[in-house]
Design goal:
It is a single chain. The protein is an alpha/beta fold and 303 residues long. The protein is built from ten helices and 15 strands.
Length: 303
């Protein structure tokens, strides 16, 4: 029987890992998978999964259209945010960018058949602002309604927690304690947690710094009551500063996703299916482990 061709390439053997991945991330669209038997049924099911995700505009036409939208210059420009060390870090020996977002960008470039240029930023707010300037083709950002006005997001590929760093003797013991009159919270300007807390805090005051790292410095220098941020880097910082601690619990679940400018409709569909395959195949989990972020949570299949 001839191979099954998909926007991701050729499934050489029915029942192989690529086909199983398509079936797994079809998830809630299982009503599209007929109860058929035999090798032909597996091929039909995999194709139905692809169609369910809106990724099968044709075995050849979609990659070409997606390549045109995602890499209009012939090079895929991928925005990398060092402000979130779970996703991207600088190699301590070489200074080169590494991490799950870097690995995903390079794999996407390989799929599209184009070179990859990493466009580096030190804060998520600067990445989202650069979308209007046309400085990147794809980006790695937390999903947020404000950002979604300009950016088409995939489903998340990593879930991380937003929480607070406080002093060891702070009266703040729980997440709910922070939203009180007179409490001042340091936050990275236009970070995902800044956008979220600006909508949800009722009485506490946000004090903004240019980047997430600078917000911790601001928290210390101005003796603010708390610093908002991603749990993992806050825990690492507290571990080397005995006078600090991180609150249990979270004020938000931060959904990290890939995005492209909203005008790229075909490109956005391709990215959505690409991310689902990367989660299902174990690529995301392996990339996190390679960069020392194995404790981060891989997002479940999209529903």
């Amino acid at each position: 029987m001839s191979p099954l061709r998909t926007p991701f390439g050729t499934v050489a053997r029915f029942g192989g890992e690529r086909t199983r991945s398509l079936l797994r991330f079809a998830g809630a669209r299982s009503h599209l998978l007929p109860r058929l038997r035999g090798r032909a049924s597996v091929a039909a099911a995999a194709l139905a999964a692809c169609v369910a995700l809106g990724a099968c505009a044709g075995p050849r036409s979609l990659p070409t259209e997606a390549r045109t939208e995602l890499a209009p210059s012939g090079t895929l420009r991928a925005a990398i945010n060092f402000g979130n060390p779970v996703l991207a870090q600088k190699d301590p020996a070489t200074g080169a960018a590494r991490g799950v977002s870097v690995d995903l960008a390079r794999e996407l470039g390989r799929r599209l058949g184009v070179p990859v240029e990493l466009v580096l930023f030190d804060a998520a707010g600067k990445v989202s602002a650069a979308a209007q300037e046309g400085r990147w083709d794809v980006a790695f950002l937390a999903i947020d309604p404000e950002r979604a006005a300009e950016i088409a997001f995939t489903a998340p590929y990593v879930l991380i927690e937003g929480t607070y760093l406080v002093r060891a003797d702070s009266p703040l013991r729980a997440i709910a304690d922070v939203d009180r009159a007179g409490v001042r919270v340091a936050v990275g300007n236009k970070s995902a947690y800044d956008l979220f807390l600006a909508r949800t805090l009722r009485t506490a005051q946000l004090v903004r710094a240019p980047t997430s790292q600078a917000s911790i410095e601001l928290f210390l220098s101005e003796r603010l009551d708390a610093a908002a941020g991603v749990r993992q880097p806050l825990m690492q910082f507290a571990a080397t500063h005995p006078g600090l601690r991180v609150l249990d619990g979270r004020f938000m679940a931060i959904e990290q996703a890939m995005g492209t400018p909203k005008r790229n409709a075909a490109g956005a569909r391709f990215l959505y299916a690409f991310i689902e395959e990367m989660k299902a195949s174990g690529f995301v989990a392996q990339a996190l482990a390679r960069s020392g972020q194995g404790e981060a949570t891989v997002a479940p299949p999209a529903r």
